[in-house]
Amino acid sequence: MTDPLIFDGHNDLLLRLHNRDISPDMDGFQGNGGRQIDLAKARKGGFGGGFFAIYVPDPVNTHDEDKMMADHYDLPLPPEINWPDAAHVALSQAAILFQLEREGALKICRSTTEIRSCLADGVMAAVLHMEGAEAIDPDFHMLEVMYQSGLRSLGPVWSRPNRFGHGVPFRFPGSPDIGPGLSTDGKRLVARCNDLGVMVDLSHLNEAGFWDVAEISQAPLVATHSNAHALTPHSRNLTDRQLHAIRDSDGMVGLNFAVAFLREDGRMDANTPIDRILRHIDHLISQLGEERVGFGSDFDGATVPQDIETVAGLPVLRAALREHSVNDALMKKLCYDNWLRVLDATWKTPVEGANS
Ligand code: ZN
User: Fold this and answer.
1) What's the CA-to-centroid distance between 155 and ligand 1, angstroms?
2) Structure confidence by residue, pLDDT tens digits, 34-56
3) Residues pairing with 153 in the sheet
């Protein structure tokens, strides 16, 4: 069997292109001039697409990866961002994705049927995701418009607090049990996402917020880009108790390649062997089962092991998995099938042609 394409739970390509403030095609995405993701690297590495995040960066950069090279750290959370500023950034980043689609670089998928077609045809599949709901107003007008535009996944918070809830600061060593749970608006947001069939992403949420979503949500619980706290005691990782709740809801976790969430010492050091990924996959599978683990790389948003480096390096990961006794059936589940199963159970878009 040829190795399957990887459909991935999280990338920050839109943030990278937005930061450049120039037209995406000029930034090299259509060739091989991107950083961790571009079309040439995707073809080389067998990257089939995934969730493309809208993310509103801090006006003042408090999120300094250099500070995560220390033995222990606790990065301050940035202040809340007001709605007009966040809405403006969200619209610009969504517009970049639409522009890429119009130029034929990828396809925005609103159903699993569309993702399956893209994977079959070798077209990059893009699911529009929002990482932190700062751009969503309490009347949910923006949510409705974004949904109609293609939004199919939303994390109520990135790590900084907002009107909907509280996220985890980047703390090592640290527990995710920091701060209060979802606000009343946050609980309404989860219910509205359930009604629309928008997936609710638990990555970045603190533990109290996690348990609020677990109680309210009618959908499988999903963390798009998080790892195992039992191996790397970082505040961004999930405890075994959280993993069991995800398993019991028949949800899943996308494994994050960001090295600080993979290493025992929590350092953001690219000199990290692929073995760290394998150990987290083993642990996630032991707690969740083979049906509930996939990838959530964080490409274009984080430092990943230097042997992978970019999406072009994904064959190195597949080879390591094979070496680690991952058979064809499990490889397919990890690479895309588990994501499709969870999205089939979460989205309300018709699955027309699913058996064709
Ligand atoms: Zn993230």
Assistant:
1) 9
2) 889 999 999 999 999 999 999 99
3) 129, 199
